[in-house]
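Need C-alpha cells for this chain, all 299 residues.
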Amino acid sequence: MADRRLAFANAALRAKKAPDKPFVALLRLIRLCLPGDYIKTFVYLNFLLAPRKFVRKAVNGFYRMDHIYDVLKEFRQHYEGPFSILEFGTARGYSFSKMLYATRYLGMEDSVTVHAFDTFEGLPESELDADMGLMANDYAQGAYRGNYEELTRYCKARGFKNFKLHKGRFNDTLVKETVDQFRESQPILIWVDCDYYSSSATLFERLLQVIPTGCVLYFDEYDFNFGSRFTGEARLVDEVNRGKFGDNIELVLDPNLSWDSKRIYRFIRFGADGPRYRSRVRVTKTPPARPIDDGSPFP
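Here are the C-alpha cells for all 299 residues:
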C-alpha cells in the first residue's frame, strides 16, 4: 500500500512539472492500476506494444508492390515511351507477374515491356565475403530456383505479350545486343533482387550507359546484414555514391516511393552526357510571376 501511495505521489509531482504526452500518460495510468512487475510487463508487451507495431506497419510500412503503379503512372504522364522494366532475380516469377499485370491494369501493355533476368537454377555458389551473411550464411546454393518453362506458359496463358525472359547468368545475358535495345525502350524501373553484391554490381556495370537520369532502382535485399555498406546490395549503393562508377553518378533515395525503407533510389547522371527520357511537356513560354497579393488565405 505504501508503494502505491508513493507512486501516486510521484505521478502528481511529475504532473506539476510538465504534462506527459497522451500515450505516456496512459501508460502511467495503466501501470498504477496493475499489480506486480510481471503483469505490467505482460500487458505492455501484448496489449500495447504489439498493437502499436501492427498499426505502424500497416499504416506507414513499406510494401514493395506499391511503387510499381506509382512509377508507371509517372512515366505515362510525363514521358514518351517505349519503356522497359527490368527484373534481376525472378525465381518463380511472383514479382514479375505483378509487374506484368500492372501494365495491363494501367493500359500500358503496348508501351512497356517487362524483362526477367535469371538462371532459373537458383542462387549460384559464391565465396565472396561481400555476398555472405555477417552473422550466418543466409543464402544457399540453389535457393530461389525458378522454372523458365512454367513461367513462360503462365504468361502466355494469360495473354501477356509484353514480356521477355532472359535465361542465364548476367554476364551471359547482358551482352551488347541486349543492352542496346534499352537505348530505345528506356528502362524506367530496375528491380534488383539477385541477393549477391557481385551479381548486383555486374548488372549495374553492364547497364550503366543506358540508364537515364530519373530511372527508379529498387533493391529488394537492401537490408541484408542490417544494410551494412560492406555487403550485398547496400554495398553497391554505397560504392556508386562514393564514385566507383563515375564522379557524376549518384543514387538518391526517393522517400516518396521508399516510405520508411531505404530500398528505392533515383539514378542521377550529372552533366549533359548520357540518355534522357523523352519529355511530353513542351515549354512554349515563361509562366508569369505571381503577384504580391495572390489571394492566399494564409500569411
